[in-house]
Amino acid sequence: MNKAPNMTIEHEKKRLVWIEKMVDFGSDNWRKVIISDGKKWILDGPDGLRYYWHALRNEKKTFFSRQNGGGSVMVWAGFWAEGTKEISFLDGIQKGEDYIWTLSEYMLPAAHRCFGTDYIFQQDNASIHRADVTRDFFDEH
């Protein structure tokens, strides 16, 4: 398996600055943070991996995949200091417009019910989160 790139000195400095800033963020602010994430599972075996670790005394296993694939399932969820948003099962490949629908149907109602409009939404740097249409959505909401 490929290793992740090593952190540079500059990466370490930036991470330390962020950590110091977050220590002073305060528990009242942390209670307002909603963290979300999605995950896609391939239903036809390992997710693109060709190698696996196995005990040397055991026989190697053979993995196969169907010519047209076995499909996948995408899930999305969110959580915060005092609650969770149940897992949502999403259809198909997710693009920016699909992500906006997911946020509108699942995240915003839960956020408004629990926090009104006083919350901080945290997500990773996935391409659909950085899409122009998604950024426009956040500017409006």
From TrEMBL:
<dbReference type="GO" id="GO:0003676">
    <property type="term" value="F:nucleic acid binding"/>
</dbReference>
<dbReference type="InterPro" id="IPR036397">
    <property type="entry name" value="RNaseH_sf"/>
</dbReference>
<protein>
    <submittedName>
        <fullName>Protein T04A11.11 putative</fullName>
    </submittedName>
</protein>
